[in-house]
Amino acid sequence: MSRYIIRRLLEAIPLLLLVSIAVFSLLQLVPGGPMGVYGRNPNLTQEGLENLQAKLGLDQPLHIQYLRWLEKALQGDFGHSYDTRRPALVEIGDRLPATLLLMTFTFVIVLLISIPAGVLSALKQYSAFDMVVTGLSFAGQALPVFWVGLVMMLIFYAWLKNPVTGKGLLPAAGMYTLGQPFSLVDRIKHLILPSATLGLAWVSWYSRYLRSSMLDVIHQDYVRTARAKGLRERVVIFKHALKNAAIPLVTVIAMDLRTFFSGSLFTEQIFSWPGMGRLFYRAAERRDYPVLMAVVMMTAVIIILSNLLADIVYAYLDPRIRYE
Amino acid sequence: MSQPLIAEPTAVENHAQLMEGRPVETMRAIIWRQFRRHPAAIAASSVLLVIVLTSVLAQWWWPHDPEAVSVMNRFEPPSLAHPMGTDRIGRDTLARVLYGGRISLSVGLLAMVTATLIGTVVGGVAGYYGGIVDGVLMRLTDFFLCFPRLFILILLSFLLRETNIPFLQGGVAPIVLVIGVMSWMMVARLVRAVFLSIKQAEFVTAAHAYGASDARIMFGHILPNSVGPIIVNATMGIAWAILSESGLSFLGYGVLPPTPSWGNILSDAQESMSLYPWVAIFPGFMIFVTVICINFIGDALRDALDPYKVVGLQRGQ
């Protein structure tokens, strides 16, 4: 098992190198390059431009630029943002906790809703409850995130008003109200709308997924045996059926782990949530190459690690896989 | 979904009928019959047909021009003349939604076709040849899967727009390419798995034995038998592509104004949404309805094309 993990980790290294080369080349292909942002500034003379280029190391041939980037990156230095002049990693460090907060909060609520929904839906297949849940999850999967965000904002901020303050019922921007001391209630209120927007599709996916794997499991012989043994229904479901039905879901969760770090661009953009998604969007607009490289590389690392985690967890939970 | 009232013929009975020369239900008929058992999918198909037809035939039945600016009539609420109201500069929203539908639907379809073509070739070749070819192709697939999808979609479309490659300027080609290139990986994995399992079948061995070329076996024998899962995947792929395109357009990286697309109509409506909500509600609702219809159809197709049911077996036999 550990040999498998080590082998996968070793395989990940050339993959990451290739990814970095690919993204680096991609960014270089844009005409004007990083200097494109300055190109239109009339105050900048040609000489000033060339000085800036030399200072940023942009006049070197491409492969030299890449190697220099790589050398620094391996030491943890991802360069400085062209925009704010702060180290790229610091920019990421500023935004990452916000994204993690939103994602974790949403994830917990998603699990709390989708697990009972999926399980009950499977146990009472074709009942009214099942029809409603399945219908809702179909709807949830079809809703575009950005539209949900806008509609939520419309309903809970523009239309429903807080009777005391006269402003919207739920805040629609940012993580907290500026100028106020730390208030847990305030933070939670700011989390509600973005969380609901993000969580809607998530809940739909997970509950459908759990429902179908639960359906597969409860028709199996061993569940029938458990019931025949006279075990209480609760034990049959939680101890035998759910544990097995949860395996594919756990694998999916492990793969979804990467969104914990890359955030949801749409939700963060709409609700002005200062997270990784917004960082990327702003960096793309301003051609902030060091930050773009850093964010994409970090996300690629997380993707590879989370796929590996998914495989390991699956093999751990389902011993049959280990012997294939 | 529910148990059939009339017993359907099983594979054995079909065979007996065939041997005795009586007409047998074709596979196509069986599939259609199974599809018809999903009332939601039938309803969804009709709704989707209406959406597609009204969009495609828009210029013949709806008089308003989607790009006709009329600042005097900005932000009119829904009325008989403008059933979806007008937008920020007085353009008729229904016209924009119809023409935008054309763009969004065609991008969805073309992107899906692109992704399915690439994925089928990659997955099919990998599954059929196995060995080193399989290894290399799967590494390639893994490589593409390493990239954060939305981020790369943004980077790629911004790139394609900036570099002035002639045939990729304007229109939907760049965004179709971008979405297609980032969506083929799942198809490849699926096709590879299907090819791997069909490869073992006896008719493939027989084809080898009488000297059929690899290409003929792959495209003439294995591929037609793997069409089921590919079609289901492709249907869901269209929905996914439509959501991707509208998302990208919403962010400003997909279809650019003034060409309407459901996504960019929404982003346009964002600022004025609190005062004039209808401009934001309608286009998003169209995306929702289209995608949910496609999902219903895809789900029904998955049941209808289920090989167990087509041959008349129960699971576990």
Percent in helix of chain B? 55-70%
Give the termini separation of chain A. Answer: 12 Å
Compute the average pLDDT of chain A: 84
- Our count of helices of chain A gives 14
> What's the CATH H-level homologous superfamily of chain A?
MetI-like
The overall pLDDT of chain B, averaged over residues, is 83
Structural class of chain A: mainly alpha
Task: Please name the CATH architecture of chain A.
Answer: Orthogonal Bundle
Beta-strand content bin of chain B:
under 5%
CATH superfamily label of chain B:
MetI-like
CATH architecture of chain B: Orthogonal Bundle
Helix segment tally of chain B: 14
- Proportion of residues in β-strands of chain A: under 5%
Low-confidence stretches of chain A: none
What is the topological layout?
The complex is a heterodimer of chains A (324) and B (317).
Chain A: H1 2-28, H2 36-39, H3 46-56, H4 62-74, H5 88-123, H6 128-142, H7 145-159, H8 184-218, H9 221-228, H10 233-262, H11 265-270, H12 276-285, H13 289-317, H14 319-322
Helix pairs in contact in A: 1-13, 5-6, 5-8, 5-10, 5-13, 6-8, 7-8, 8-10, 9-10, 10-13, 12-13
Chain B: H1 11-19, H2 27-36, H3 39-56, H4 58-61, H5 93-129, H6 131-145, H7 149-162, H8 173-181, H9 184-199, H10 202-209, H11 214-251, H12 262-269, H13 278-304, H14 307-311
Helix pairs in contact in B: 2-13, 3-5, 3-13, 5-6, 5-8, 5-9, 5-11, 7-8, 9-11, 10-11, 11-12, 11-13, 12-13
